[in-house]
Write a structure and sequence with these properties.
The protein has one domain (4-140, 215-283): Alpha/Beta hydrolase fold, catalytic domain (Rossmann fold), CATH 3.40.50.1820. Helix content is 42%, strand content 16%. It has helices at residues 4-7, 51-54, 83-95, 108-119, 142-145, 147-158, 162-172, 180-190, 193-206, 209-212, 218-221, 241-250, 266-269, 271-283; strands spanning 12-17, 22-27, 33-37, 59-63, 101-106, 124-130, 228-233, 255-259. An 8-stranded mixed β-sheet has the order 1-2-4-3-5-6-7-8, sandwiched between helices. The relative contact order is 0.15.
Length: 284
């Protein structure tokens, strides 16, 4: 298996200063931008195994969200603070000189993709919801049902050790796939004081009852008109394939593809299969 470093050979690391944010970006390729959007607590290297392959039909742009990785750490605003992710994404889209992009969002990234498609459809060409979070799931509450994830995340943040970081990553990939290199990278990022404090507030807000009200209901999701691929997995810990099939009925014209033998990081666990389906969808 290649390392993160060798997987990223040929890509460029850049920082974009936009009106409100400073964003670290990994990018390569040309043509239509494909924004690759990681999950909560993550970083651009989430997509290291995919970028060069996806460059065959797009311009992959993977970036650290605000409060994450090496991007800026602005003050959390009151109210719908999650919209700050969307604002960062739109400013980055302007900075690279593009009017539209294809957006793939994994987990939290799916929430941002939904927000873009619902509230900024003029900037969206297609979306890929990868084991997405951000919608109201019948019978589940974000604050109540993910208490264990909150505890695991905060424990690793406030006491960053290889063991606790690995335990947090094992939640993403309980079927295997967590490498020593990935643990060391996450450890280095979560050991930074600015990132650790920002992510602590992020997780406390994310798993609060108030955040449940920010999730999209079915009426909002039905407003998505962009071509949509629901890229799901057999063992997604947030919600299984049944949720993807439920969303398919709500988002008109959407399609579902389920990757077997993967959990919450299919782009890392099954990169070749993931990239094949994304390229097919892009070229469609």
């Amino acid at each position: 298996m290649n390392s993160i470093h060798t997987d990223l050979l040929g890509t460029e690391t850049r920082y974009y200063q936009t009106p409100n944010f400073r964003t670290r970006v990994l990018e390569t390729g040309s043509g239509t931008p494909l924004f690759l959007m990681h999950g909560g607590g993550g970083h651009a290297e989430t997509w290291s195994r995919n970028m060069n392959r996806l460059a065959a039909a797009s311009r992959p742009v993977a970036f650290d969200y605000i409060w994450h990785g090496l991007s800026s750490k602005p003050k959390f605003r009151d109210g719908n603070w999650l919209r700050q992710f969307t604002e960062q994404t739109l400013e980055l889209l302007d900075a690279i000189g593009a009017k539209k992009a294809i957006f793939e969002g994994e987990s939290l990234g799916g929430w941002i993709c939904m927000d873009l498609a619902i509230n900024h459809p003029d900037r969206v060409e297609k979306i890929i919801l990868n084991t997405a979070w951000g919608m109201k799931i019948p019978g589940k509450s974000g604050s109540a049902d993910y208490a264990a994830l909150r505890e695991t995340s905060l424990n690793a943040l406030m006491n960053p050790t290889p063991e606790l970081i690995r335990k947090r990553l094992d939640w993403l990939m309980p079927l295997g796939g967590v490498t020593d290199e990935l643990v060391q990278l996450r450890l280095a990022l979560w050991s930074r004081e600015d990132t650790r404090m920002a992510l602590k507030e992020y997780y406390e807000r994310l798993f609060s009852p108030e955040c449940d009200a920010l999730l999209f209901d079915d009426t909002a999701l039905a407003r998505i008109k962009a071509p949509t691929l629901l890229l799901w997995t057999e063992k997604n810990p947030i919600a299984g394939p049944d949720e993807a099939l439920r969303l398919q009925k709500i988002i008109k014209g959407s399609e579902v593809y389920v990757i077997k033998g993967a959990a919450h990081w299919p782009q890392w666990e099954r990169p070749e299969e993931h990239d094949r389906e994304v390229l097919r969808f892009i070229r469609k």
